[in-house]
Amino acid sequence: MDSSSDSKHHMMMCFFLGMLFFCMVVESDAQLSENFYASTCPNVELIVRQAVTTKYQQTTITAPATLRMFFHDCFVGGCDASVLIASDNGDAEKDAQDNISLAGDGFDTVNKAKLAVEAQCPGLVSCSDIMALAARDVVVLAGGPGFKVELGRRDGLVSTASRVDGKLPGPELDVTGLVDLFASNGLTMTDMIALSGAHTIGFSHCDRFSNRLYNFSALMPVDPTLDMAYAQQLMQSCPRVGSDPSVAVNLDLNTPNVFDNVYFQNLVARKGLFTSDQILFNDFRSQATVIRFANSAEEFNRAFTSAMRKLGRVGVKVGKQGEIRRDCSAFN
């Protein structure tokens, strides 16, 4: 081979390597980063934390409401703040049957944080990033672990109620159903069990678990895996006839406003409110992890923070995808 051929071959190799490196840089630039706003809005975390703290001091419902909303958003079309969109026709994601019960305090928390951020960094920080930060902040305010939040998400351009069907875990799911649903979002069984621990705060309404009290089966009206004293207590709050649909029952009967590992201790004591809670202890595949978390708050906190970071990566829009909404409840 002559020298000119060698030179051309060398140049072509350099070109392809250069293009490969360029593509790798573009790809890496499109990923989430903990310091995404370091040069454009360096105080974003402080701004959000102050707004969330003010809201939490007004009502502790802020914590479970914001955390649940983040989870519901990520599991439907990815973490893109599509759940925040309001529709005049009542056909947005938040209007779906599984989302109607999302507490207004969660929406209010993110909207107030967005207003505060816009005042200092207009048009730069996405609603989806603000929601991710707020979800972390409410966990800390309720006594849970802190962790670094990756940023750089962009807000989605689609929000329809029809997308929600089958995407969120119902209170009646068994372990196989839970594992499959979480796996479809890149999350492991350990992630699923750890994220279920978010039920250490918050509440539910009677219609979500009353089947365990009155019509579990033809032979056993009361779910036999439910502690009987706890079942009696729930029956007083949720009578078979004339039950008030607005009655709220704490998911964690012992420390309902504290983010801790008592939820898992309740499962061991057969005091999980939902079937999908209690099954985590009843099923041998997940039981050992439940016991481990019940015995060690440190183990639970470590698994929860890891799972939250993984959850925050689900279906994210980055780079030139999506948009940065000016108003979290409306597309630009």
Can you tell me the residue ranges where pLDDT is under 50 for at least 5 consecutive residues?
A: 20-29
Task: Spell out the helices and strands N to C.
Answer: HHHHHHHEHHEHHHH
- Percent of residues in helices comes to 40-55%
Q: What composes the largest sheet?
A: 2 strands, antiparallel
What's the total helix number? 13
> How confident is the prediction overall: mean pLDDT?
92
Describe the global form.
Answer: globular
Order of strands, main sheet, comes to 1-2
What is the total tally of β strands?
2
Q: Percent of residues in beta strands?
A: under 5%
Rounded to an integer in angstroms, the radius of gyration calculated over CA atoms is: 23 Å
Would you tell me the structural class of the helices and strands?
Answer: mainly alpha
Instruction: Quote the distance from N terminus to C terminus.
Output: 60 Å
Short descriptors:
single chain, 332 residues, mainly alpha, two-stranded antiparallel ribbon, 2 strands, globular
Compact overview of the structure:
The chain is an all-alpha fold. The chain contains 13 helices and two strands; from the N terminus they run αααααααβααβαααα. It has helices spanning 3-29, 44-58, 62-75, 104-120, 127-141, 175-183, 189-196, 211-214, 228-237, 262-268, 275-282, 284-295, 297-311, and strands at 203-205, 248-250.
SSE layout and pairing:
Layout: H1 3-29, H2 44-58, H3 62-75, H4 104-120, H5 127-141, H6 175-183, H7 189-196, E1 203-205, H8 211-214, H9 228-237, E2 248-250, H10 262-268, H11 275-282, H12 284-295, H13 297-311
Antiparallel strand pairs: 1-2
